[in-house]
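Bit of a strange request maybe. I'm writing a small parser for structure token strings and I need a real example to test against, not something I typed by hand. Could someone generate the tokens for this chain?
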Amino acid sequence: MPFTALSNVKQRLTVGKPLPFNVRDHDRSLLLARGQMIHTDDQLAALLERGSLVDLDELQTARERAQQAPRGLLPQLWNDGLSRVQAALQTLATGSFHAAIDDASDAVLGLVERDPNLAIFQVVTRDANADVAYGARRSMHAAICSYLVGHRLGWEATALERVFKVALTMNLSMLELQGEMARQRSGPTAAQRADLMTHPMRSVEMLMQAGIDDADWLQAVARHHEQEDGSGYPTGRTDVGELASLVRRADVYTAKLASRSHRESLLADQAGRQMFMQDPGHPMTAALVKEFGIYPPGCYVRLESGEIAVVVQRGPTVTTPVVACLTTARGTLLTVPQRVDTAQPRRGVQGVVGESHVGHKLPLDKLLTSLD
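Reply from user aminoacidic:
Good idea to test on real output. This should exercise your parser:
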């Protein structure tokens, strides 16, 4: 591995801030791990004088790696990024929560920016992120949705990263409860309902204890279940704020796509139509429906020709996605998925097919092949 002197990249260091990379001694043994802090100017000067080293590969941020990696590596990078998110949400008691959330967000946002279609695939398909705990997965899906919709609305970069982190952390106090409720075959108990009603403020308290002092971030977490008409909770206020308002809508939409033991997930087209009917005319909901479309990447569809396909890319309109056919019109499995533009005559989408009715699903690495 190639190394460079720490002095060559000292502009990347800030006293009192977590290290963005590992710092090694002249013999390449580890001195300080990424995420640890340099507490004083004297400590920094001593490291520079010591001839400390940095691995050149570590100078590239996770975001840069995602944006520059070969397409064949993207499935693994998505798995790694979502595992980082889950790990970050579990670091509250370690004192490195802020650095862990920054690192995980950087990794995933690089992937979202690299290919929004693959990001939507992560949200829509039930098989994606199967190894990630239910609560962390739900937070991740809401965060991806919030970021994409905010981008469509023209939000600036700082607000986009903040809304992503708000969605990631809004349910910190109930991640385990979400998993329990997803597994049980009945609705929430009275005790669970009480926890649900108080979780926004409890999540804020946990964030503050972990060192988060961004007032806008904390306010949005506190208000992410409030509604502009005062019908939300926990306080019934009407001054919700844009961050909380967008995160709530992303949370509602992605919840419709998530299955639990006692109920099936909605089909993607049904989820989009419900959002539009329940919140007509609101620009955030309109942007969400436009961003994901009626047939978002990751959903399975039947074509007018009879073929079963998976949507791999949004098309020129919400009703004409690009798909990868998995079967022939007679139901025979294709050995190689066939890319089809549904704007073609007699190849339009007839309707969405539930995943339970699809005998042959397309993993992410095959999806990439279909996109090429």
